Amino acid sequence: MLCSVLVGITIIAPAQNTKNFPTVISGNTTLDSGVYSVKGNNIVREGANLIINSGTKLEFAENAYVQVKGGLVIAGSKNDFVTITSVESSAPGMGFEILHESDLPIRVDYADFSYLKKPIKLSKYWLRPVVDITNSQFHDLNDDVFMEILEIDKILLKQDVDVTITGNTFGNNASGMMISDAAWKQLHINISNNVFSRNQFIGRDYNGIFTTPLFLNYNEQDEQLKQPDLKGNSISYNYIGFIGIDTVEYSPVYLTVVGSADKMNISDNYYGIAASEYLTKAEENIHASQRAPYLEFSSLQETPSSDLNGHVYEIMVNGVGVDHPNYDLKIDRFTDVIQLVSNKPVLPTPNYTVSYVYLDEDTLRRYAVNQVTTFEQNNRLTKITLDEKIIKKHEYGFIEVGGLVDQNGPSPTSCPYPVHPPYYTSSQI
Fold first, then answer.
1. Please, are residues 207 and 286 in contact by the beta-carbon 8 Å criterion?
2. Are 353 and 373 in contact, with CB atoms under 8 Å apart?
3. Which among 175, 249, 245, 237 is positioned nearest to 212, based on CA atoms?
4. Nearest residue to 170 via CA among 348, 344, 311
5. Spatial contact of 49 and 73, defined as CB atoms under 8 Å apart
6. Which of 10, 232, 379, 423 could form a disulfide with 345 if both were Cys (CB 3.0 to 4.6 A apart)?
């Protein structure tokens, strides 16, 4: 049985000429370009607006964070994302915490978040007229919840509040998104056209707050509240290693919905192969332990839309498809050909790699394998033919494929690894 968990790897940012992030922002401030070092507690005061444009990189020191009591606009571009990460992956920073009521918006567009504890947190009473999180990627985030949206004081509501989370990729994380109260009369949450893929969890509870890529608390009284829009997403190939007394059992996870509502429709999304069976099992597990709406999923998408960010949604080994390759599939001496089916045509970037990761006694080793990659079916099928003796010597590791970009995406030369959306999450097989 295979567990795709990377251990003991530390990423340290190379030395660069850095500027100090402003500790106190009292007026409108724009960061146009360059690398900024974020240390300790920093604040955007009431009435102030922080704008971060393309060409900017923020490097957070351990536990450093930015409190935003005013406005925040992260405005990257398709070919030049704003990069937000930590100086050291083993000592991650926190991220942005949105506090207090303000008339200024929160907008995040074309941002790349990695190696942070909680990149975006909307703390209690975060009231804003608009929150848009779009066209961004969240990866290598391993601290329980990478995005948290807590409740608003309903007494303060004077107008409708729109929260839009669309066009993003959430992949290769060990954490998820949590929304504490997903429906009010004046709150409209739209979670659409995102990719939740290759997220992995370890725990003792199925579909808990910290063991699923998307967790919603949905309370509705007499069908007066509109349910959150949850459509057009690909929520597939996420899994949990469920810890028993002396075993670890692997199972797919999708999303968790709890609360006092009677039902919630989660149709019109892609959940992977054999999704209906696993969604039913997940729902039974939730109802066995807590109050939760019944999930309706009468019309599930058979394949993810080509309008989504690029990702692998089907894998075949030696010509045979597998339901859930993260934990069902063994890579051994009989593995000759691996085929990856994508929702968009792909091209390899200069950072394209095929690696074999295996345990050698007490050490996890990564090895660039000898292979030949070809692209078929208008580049939607990636065929990897292996010619590698290391797999025969050290069986039952896993293959990791990274560095594929869709043909209409950003120029490969402008995209440092990991590749930016529209992009392909690393496929751990």
1. yes
2. no
3. 175
4. 311
5. yes
6. 379
Q: How far apart are CA 185 and CA 188, in angstroms?
A: 8
Q: How many domains does the chain have?
A: 2
Cβ contacts of 132 within 8 Å, gap of 6 or more: 105, 106, 107, 108, 109, 164
What is the side-by-side strand order in the sheet with 363-368? 363-368, 346-360, 398-406, 427-428
Domain end marker among 241, 271, 296: 296
By the 8 A CB rule, do 347 and 366 touch? Answer: no
> What CA–CA distance (Å, rounded) separates 199 from 147?
14
Residue 243 in contact with residue 204, Cβ under 8 Å?
Answer: yes
How many Å apart are CA 200 and CA 171, to the nearest integer? Answer: 9
Model's pTM, two decimal places?
Answer: 0.87
Instruction: Give SS3 for 60.
Output: strand
Domain boundary among 272, 296, 320: 296
Phi/psi at 231 (5° precision): -145, 150
Terminal Cα-to-Cα distance of the chain (whole angstroms): 12
- Residue 62 DSSP code: T
Q: Is residue 13 part of a domain?
A: no
- Domain enclosing residue 362, as ranges: 312-428
Long-range contacts of 406-410 (CB under 8 A, 24+ apart): 406/309, 406/310, 406/342, 406/344, 406/345, 406/346, 406/347, 407/344, 407/345, 407/346, 407/347, 407/379, 408/344, 409/78, 409/310, 410/78, 410/79
Establish if 103 belongs to a structural domain: yes
Cα-Cα-Cα-Cα torsion 33, 97, 125, 225, nearest 10 degrees, comes to: 80
Which carries the bigger pLDDT value, residue 218 or residue 186? 218
The pLDDT tens digits of the residues spanning 256-268 come to: 999 888 888 999 9
pLDDT digits (tens, 9 = 90+) for 37-76: 999 999 999 999 999 999 999 999 999 999 999 999 999 9
Asked if residue 360 belongs to a domain, the reply is yes
Please tell me whether residues 116 and 247 are part of one structural domain: yes
| Phi, psi for 38 (deg, rounded to 5) | -105, 120
SS3 65: strand
Query: What are the backbone angles phi and psi of residue 287, rounded to the nearest 5°?
Result: -65, -20
Q: Are 271 and 254 in contact (CB under 8 A)?
A: yes
Token pair in block for residue 271: 């959940």
Residue at 34 is within a domain: yes
DSSP annotation of 100 reads S
For residue 159, give the H/E element and its range. Answer: none
